[in-house]
Design brief:
Layout: E1 11-12, E2 15-16, H1 27-40, H2 44-59, H3 69-87, H4 89-93
Antiparallel strand pairs: 1-2
């Protein structure tokens, strides 16, 4: 049996893979990951904008009940705390 290599774009040997697109993470998770990446690179302006977008997404009225709402809010609070500590390193020294 011969397997064709995937090029990372969902294509196999120039053809589009059959089936629905595979989404492994929610958009809010991807934004949180991008936020942490911006923090790791000390790009606090981008981190702040990503955090603002994430906050807007998590605080707007949900269409369907969200069973992960508490976990999402805890992640948002932790992200705010991380950004604040990165901008105020003297506070963590005390």
């Amino acid at each position: 049996m011969v397997e064709e290599e995937r090029d990372g774009s969902g294509r196999e040997g120039g053809r589009v893979a059959a089936g629905p697109p595979r989404h492994t993470r929610r958009l809010s998770d991807k934004i949180l990951i991008a936020f942490h990446h911006a923090c790791d690179q000390s790009d606090f302006e981008v981190a702040e904008e990503l955090l603002r977008i994430l906050e807007m997404m998590l605080t707007r009225r949900p269409v369907a009940p969200d069973v992960n709402r508490r976990k999402n809010m805890e992640s948002l609070v932790a992200a705010h705390e991380r950004l604040w500590l990165l901008r105020h390193p003297e506070a963590s020294e005390k």
